[in-house]
Each structure stands twice: as C-alpha cells, then as structure tokens.
Amino acid sequence: MTAKSQVESAWTRPQRQRRETPALSRKQIVDEAIALLDSEGVDNLSMRRLGTRLNAGATSLYTHVANKEELLQLVVDQVFGEVRVPEQIEAGNWRRDLTEMSRGVRDTLLRHPWMTIVMSSAGLVYLGPNIMRMSEAMLTIMEVAGFPDEAGDRASNALFSYIFGSSSGEAAMLTTVARSGMPEQEWFEQIMATSEQLARPYPRVHKRYVAHQGIDAASGRKDAFEQELGLFLDGLELRRRAL
C-alpha cells in the first residue's frame, strides 16, 4: 500500500542537514523577510535582496527554505502568530471570543498590509502551526457555542472570509493613501467630496456619502468593521438558537 500524495509545504519537507553550525537560522531569515515586506512591499522581496540584507548569498538561504514560495508560507504563519486566541473557551463567551479573535486578525493584517496580497496568490498553501492554532480555537468556540461540526466549520470559514475581505479593502486603501503622500484624513475628505458629487444622480448612494462627510477616517474604518462584524454575529446567534 503506497502513501497518499501530499501537497508540498514548508512543514512537510525535511530540512536539509548541515555538518557545521550554520551562520543563519530559518527564524533569522523569516524575521528579515517580514521586515523587508513591511518596509518595501511584496514586489521588492527576492531571495537575492533578502540575502543582501542578511549579509549572505542567496544560495545560503536555500539551506533553510526551498524557494520563495516556501519562504512566504513561513512568513505568513509567523505573522499569524501575533493573533491571540482565548486561553479558556466557554459557551457563554462565544460571541466575545469571536469578536476578540476577529479584531486580532484585522489588526494583524493592517499592520502587515502585504499579507492580503500574499494570501491571495494562487498556488500557496498555508498549513503552518499558527494557522492551525487559530483554526482550532475558532472551531472550539463554535463547538462550545452549540454548532455541529459541519455548521461550525462553515461558520468559521464565512467569518474568516468576512475579516479577510474587509481587511483586504482597508489594506489596499491604506497603501493607496501612503503612495499619495497625504494624511489619511485629507485623502478621505477629497475622496468623499468627489464621490458625493458623482453620486448625485443616485439618491440613496448620495445620501450615504453625505452621511459620511466630516467623520474621522480611521475611526470610521474601525466602526464600520465593528458594526459589520456585529451583523455577522447576530446572524450566527439566530442560527444557533434554531439548532
């Protein structure tokens, strides 16, 4: 009987052995890759550039990572290690726990806006321990709240899809703001003025743009996330009561 084929992953590939003590560690490489991505973005990440920052040749990096794709798997998982999961999960606190985890994921994605770009790339598989830890916590919350396995899985996936989609939009906007060289509030006010003018033939859309004028941009983004998350959790509560 042959073993089933597996998807290639940074966590299933055996690490290469070296006789001497290596000058670099995998953690050093991943830490520096995150610093590079935070400061210069995805387009500027290459094994050669990373090697230069580490004062090492690109070939020496391949002792620890097979290729750039594997490096990105490691980077994404390490960043998700910043998300705190509940230490103690109880049925009565399911909504609070999901809210805090959702906020943590959003905050992490906005601290590292390139994450949404990397995770949207086709062909990358994320199976690392920190992602598994987050998934386990979310499924446990759903289970103690009373959701059957399949329903809890679907609810967890839907919640993460909302967080990721919302945060992707925010991250893209913040990247655009940074490129403009303007403070976020100034950029926001200019966009609102233009949008309000263009929306005048559409009364309901125009009404919403008028309602958003004068608000603080950063607070508005956060409030929108909280309100939309609340709507999602309200829906989960209705479904939970119907079980």
UniProtKB/TrEMBL annotation:
<dbReference type="GO" id="GO:0000976">
    <property type="term" value="F:transcription cis-regulatory region binding"/>
</dbReference>
<dbReference type="InterPro" id="IPR009057">
    <property type="entry name" value="Homeodomain-like_sf"/>
</dbReference>
<dbReference type="InterPro" id="IPR050109">
    <property type="entry name" value="HTH-type_TetR-like_transc_reg"/>
</dbReference>
<dbReference type="Pfam" id="PF02909">
    <property type="entry name" value="TetR_C_1"/>
</dbReference>
<dbReference type="Pfam" id="PF00440">
    <property type="entry name" value="TetR_N"/>
</dbReference>
<feature type="DNA-binding region" description="H-T-H motif">
    <location>
        <begin position="46"/>
        <end position="65"/>
    </location>
</feature>
<feature type="compositionally biased region" description="Polar residues">
    <location>
        <begin position="1"/>
        <end position="14"/>
    </location>
</feature>
<keyword id="KW-0805">Transcription regulation</keyword>
<feature type="domain" description="HTH tetR-type">
    <location>
        <begin position="23"/>
        <end position="83"/>
    </location>
</feature>
<protein>
    <submittedName>
        <fullName>TetR/AcrR family transcriptional regulator</fullName>
    </submittedName>
</protein>
<keyword id="KW-0238">DNA-binding</keyword>
<dbReference type="GO" id="GO:0003700">
    <property type="term" value="F:DNA-binding transcription factor activity"/>
</dbReference>
<dbReference type="GO" id="GO:0045892">
    <property type="term" value="P:negative regulation of DNA-templated transcription"/>
</dbReference>
<dbReference type="InterPro" id="IPR004111">
    <property type="entry name" value="Repressor_TetR_C"/>
</dbReference>
<dbReference type="InterPro" id="IPR001647">
    <property type="entry name" value="HTH_TetR"/>
</dbReference>
<dbReference type="InterPro" id="IPR023772">
    <property type="entry name" value="DNA-bd_HTH_TetR-type_CS"/>
</dbReference>
<feature type="region of interest" description="Disordered">
    <location>
        <begin position="1"/>
        <end position="24"/>
    </location>
</feature>
<keyword id="KW-0804">Transcription</keyword>
<dbReference type="InterPro" id="IPR036271">
    <property type="entry name" value="Tet_transcr_reg_TetR-rel_C_sf"/>
</dbReference>
